[in-house]
Amino acid sequence: MSSEKIALTQTVQKGGCAAKVAASELRRILQQVKFPAAHPALLVDGRLFDDAAIYKINDEIALVQTLDFFTPIVDTPKLFGEIAAANALSDVYAMGGKPLTAMGILAFPLATMAEHVIVDVLQGASDKIAEAGANFVGGHSIDDDTLKFGLSVTGFVNPGQAWTNAGANAGDHLILTKALGTGTMTATLKSQHFQEDDIMEALHSMATINNAIDCMTQDLQAAVHAATDITGFGFSGHSMQLANASQVTLRIQTEKLPRFTKTFFCLENSFLTKAHRTNSEYTAANIDVSNLNNLYRLLIHDPQTSGGLLLSVSSEVSHSMVQVLRTRFKSAEIVGEVLPRQDKAVVFE
Ligand SMILES: Nc1ncnc2c1ncn2[C@@H]1O[C@H](COP(=O)(O)OP(=O)(O)OP(=O)(O)O)[C@@H](O)[C@H]1O
Ligand SMILES: [Mg+2]
Q1: Beta strands per DSSP E along 239-345
Q2: Does residue 3 form part of some domain?
Q3: How many CA atoms does the CB half-sphere of 292 hold within 13 Å?
Q4: What is the pTM of this model?
Q5: Domains identified in the chain, total number
Q6: 302 close to ligand 1 (CB < 6 Angstrom)
Q7: Pairing of strands 148-157, 309-313
Q8: Structural domain that includes position 183
Q9: d(C-alpha 128, C-alpha 12), whole Å
Q10: Minimal CA–CA distance to 125: which of 115, 117, 136, 133?
Q11: Nearest C-alpha to atom 20 of ligand 1 is from which residue?
Q12: pLDDT in tens, 11-60
């Protein structure tokens, strides 16, 4: 199989989760749709802006369902497939679930792109799905102007043990499992300032599946009170959503936020995306950034693709939890704590 680089990022205008419809626009659109009342078995649905839907089958099993696709964020096809799959699987892990089956969603420019490109994308996805212990069971493909790829993933969770974004308690500690900066670092690929070899740490991180739950004992799993994954709306947007859903305030020690070695270099040199601005607008009224300089403001708004999990955990286990997580996620860090609700959802110190 070819691993030839064909500069996929040059074939699209936006890449990865930075291509997501901005959060405020998405909310405005969804609010105009008249959805029927939720079925009683639906424990979590799209209205809660959580990571995935949860549908209870019986007292032991609930389905976890999610779908994610996007445009190329890297130049190498197989790596794009790996990252797209890790990103799609992530929303199941963010609910405390285990992925079971995955289906591919593919839009492919048949006239302009060689067939081996898509074989490589699908191979990358297949390898990641297998690594997650799930099954790649099918998909759907269309001919389109630009390449888009993703997965619909179905997983399962015990309905009493699901992690949602609504369970954070005052006194909890907050853990972030991956470094921040994939938005600005992949913007350097698009502008051709850097090659993939220059940003390997970010590429490796995006291709890492968020199976934090597989490192945890039952007791540690139960000590997670809330979770979400940090993706296109940035640390600012996703932490704000978790705080609002849980009706608490998050106090973040901003200097503790893990970041890649080159994240600040890339931000300082203005490798930015539209999402840096839209994430800032989305969160402006609800977070306090008055203590932050411009660089840290850009960091918290940086759109992540296949970013880390933000876990709100019992303070008694936070240090042992971080040690366990670091066996798989070397950047995992305690980044703040949960306070009773104040005026703002998130305060950055
Ligand atoms: N086209 C759509 N139709 C219905 N609901 C949607 C649609 N797009 C998004 N949503 C819902 O809006 C909410 C926010 O979507 P978003 O994609 O940000 O969540 P997410 O899946 O956690 O993101 P990510 O995959 O980047 O972690 C989710 O509950 C999602 O199910
Ligand atoms: Mg998510």
Answers
A1: 248-252, 287-288, 309-313, 333-340
A2: no
A3: 21
A4: 0.94
A5: 2
A6: no
A7: unpaired
A8: 173-348
A9: 24
A10: 136
A11: 51
A12: 888 877 777 888 889 989 999 999 999 899 999 988 778 999 999 999 99
Active site residue 266: no
Residue 167 lies in a domain: no
Residues 201 and 321 in one domain: yes
Based on DSSP, count helices (H) and strands (E) in the chain, helices before strands: 11, 13
How far is residue 249's CA from residue 342's CA, in Å, rounded to a whole number?
Answer: 6
Q: Which tokens go with 186?
A: 């992949």
Ligand 1: distance of its center to the CA of 183 in Å? 19
10 Å CB burial of residue 115 (0-12, 13-18, 19+) is exposed
Catalytic residue among 8, 17, 88, 300: 17
pLDDT in tens, 181-224: 999 999 999 899 999 999 999 999 999 999 999 999 999 999 99
- The residues near 186 (Cβ < 8 Å, ≥ 6 apart) are 9, 15, 16, 18, 73, 74, 199, 202, 305
Shared domain for 180 and 148, answered yes or no, is no
For ligand 2, the distance from its centroid to the CA atom of residue 110, given in whole angstroms, is: 30
